[in-house]
Design brief:
The protein is mainly α. Helix content is about 80%, strand content about 0%. It starts with a helix and ends with a helix.
């Protein structure tokens, strides 16, 4: 039961990281086409979130780098973005991933 609760929390955090990063990306490039209009967007975002959720059970430094690898593969390989725009989106994902990992570490330290 505890693993199911943790899995749902990690799923929400990964989804929130993706959603906030895409919102920041959209506000950065107001002159571009909508990122969500890409036909691969739903599949890419779902697979990226699922892979990041699986890495959430790994302790902080290694799990964070595994999550970055998952975000990087999704952004650079499967979304039709230029290298610059993909780097900006990846930067937002990396930054918000740090925030979510720190939230998890803070909750765990408060509960310990």
């Amino acid at each position: 039961m505890v693993l199911l609760i943790a899995l749902s929390i990690f799923t929400f955090l990964a989804w929130a990281t993706w959603a906030v990063s895409v919102a920041c990306y959209t506000s950065t490039f107001t002159d571009s086409a909508d990122l969500t209009a890409d036909p691969n967007y739903s599949a890419v975002s779902g697979c990226a979130i699922a892979s990041v959720v699986l890495t959430s059970f790994v302790p902080f430094p290694f799990g964070y780098f595994a999550a970055l690898a998952a975000w990087g593969v999704a952004v650079y390989a499967y979304l039709n973005l230029s290298r610059t725009r993909a780097t900006v989106l990846f930067g937002y994902l990396a930054g918000w991933s740090v925030v979510t990992r720190l939230v998890v570490l803070g909750v765990l330290s408060a509960l310990a």
